[in-house]
Every structure is written in C-alpha cells, then in structure tokens.
Amino acid sequence: MTRRDEIKIFYQRHLPHYQPPGCTFFVTFRLTGSLPLYVIQKLKNEHEAQLKLISGIEDQKEKYRSYKEVQLNYFEKFDSVLDKYRKSVSWLKQPALAEKVKEVIHFYDGNTYDLIAYTIMPNHVHMVFTPIEENVGRDLSRQQNGVDMNVDLQMPIVTDILRRLKGATSRECNKILNRSGAFWQHESYDHVVRDEDELSRIIEYVLNNPVKARLVDKWNDWKWSYCKFVSSN
C-alpha cells in the first residue's frame, strides 16, 4: 500500500504534456443550505455591480479580460465564504458520506469523463475532468436493456455529468442520513480550462483547499483528495 507521505504531486514543475481531445472543466458544487440566503445575495449583488461596471468597456479584449477577472474573483470569494462559514451544513464531514461521494466520482471515471483531480470538502466538492467525447450529446442514464433510448439528445455535457453525479450521491447519502429532499444546491460553478498552465494552477488550488481552510497542514494529509498526476517514488 502506498504511504501518503511518499506521494509526490507533479503539477508543481513536472506536469505531463496533457492535450485532451475536448475541453477540460473545473467544477464546484455545494450542499444545499451550506450558506444562508443573505450571504449568497450579498455576494451576487457585488458580482452584478462589477459586471455592470465592465459592461460599458468598448475594447472587447479588455472587456473579456475584465470579465474573466470578475468571474474568478466571484468564485474565490464564494469559495472562501464556504470554507469559513462555521454554521454551514457540513454532512461531508462524516466519513461514510465523503466515501460515498468518492465512490461515485470514481465510478464515472473512464466511461463518462477522464478524472484529473478532486477534493471533497465538508460542504462542497471541487472536480477537474475532461468529458469523454463519445458521450457528448447523449444522456447515458436514459437506457433500456442497454440500448440508448435518445441518442440525439442535446444536453450540455457538464450539466448532464453533474446531474448524474448529484443524483447518485444524493440518493445514497440521504439513505445514510435517513432523510429525504435536496442534498446538493441546484446551481454549480463550472469553468473551461484554457491551457496547461491554467490546469496546473487549478489542480494546485483544488488540492490545497483543505490546507487553506486549515483542516490539514499538507494537502496529502487530506483523505478526500485525489490527483491522477501522482507517483509513489
């Protein structure tokens, strides 16, 4: 068995040349009730005010650059609040629930997406993956006797993937909690990874989230993190 203190991450300086056939996505989804409405509304109001400011920029390159910066700032603020809000719903602190989410995430690896990295936090999940092209535009959860019943379905692939992930984990986790109703918040964050440098930065961000939240001292001390670029050397 590989000892966790022997695992070395390669994103820092030795990230392999990685050119996926399609887009790679960074997604974040959180538990329902993980933040109160007034906190969410405050963040959204600030975000909308910033978007309004850049809407008048005439230079399209500058406008796009500003837009990306505003979107990134909004995500980082939201994520920071999730880490710090102590009254948050945090079911994923329970090892049985975190393990169930981990199982489902890995279940889809290799058949729905190429899983690159993830971290399961007490109240939210970060994932990085590349959808497998043959599944784009097809809802593989709607089959009968192994036959795809609607091969022409055009559904945003990330929306479809998250719907299946959330649906499967919600059912299993609610059983453990002996509850019913929404488990995950409906909306989620997704971002298309532009290049290898950004992929490296995002992986670092994802794996270091537990460190930033002061849950552990080193990223590889967190049991609910994963990255495909690891070695047991």
Q: Which keywords apply here?
A:
2 domains, disordered N terminus, five-stranded antiparallel sheet, Alpha-Beta Plaits, two-stranded antiparallel sheet, single chain, alpha+beta, 233 residues, 6 helices
What would you say this structure looks like, in words?
The protein is 40% helix and 17% strand. By secondary structure, it is α+β, with helices and mostly antiparallel strands. It has 2 domains: 4-34 and 90-231, 2-Layer Sandwich (Alpha-Beta Plaits); 35-87. A 5-stranded antiparallel sheet has the order 7-2-4-3-8, with helices on both faces. A two-stranded antiparallel sheet has the order 1-9. The protein is globular and about 55 Å long.
Task: Characterize this entry briefly.
The protein is built from six helices and nine strands.
| CATH level 3 topology of the largest domain | Alpha-Beta Plaits
Q: Summarize the biggest pleated sheet.
A: 5 strands, antiparallel
Spans with pLDDT under 50 lasting ≥5 residues?
1-21, 138-156
Average the pLDDT over all residues and give the rounded result: 81
Distance from N terminus to C terminus (CA atoms, Å) equals: 13 Å
Total E-strand runs: 9
**Number of DSSP helices?**
6
Strand content: 15-25%
**Domains counted in the coordinates: how many?**
2
- Which structural class do the helices and strands define? alpha+beta
CATH homology group of the largest domain: Transposase IS200-like
**Strand order in space, largest sheet:** 7-2-4-3-8
CATH level-two architecture of the largest domain: 2-Layer Sandwich
User: So what's the CATH class of the largest domain?
Assistant: Alpha Beta
Shape: globular
- The H-and-E topology, N to C, reads as EEHHHEEEEHEHHEE
Rg on CA atoms, Å? 19 Å
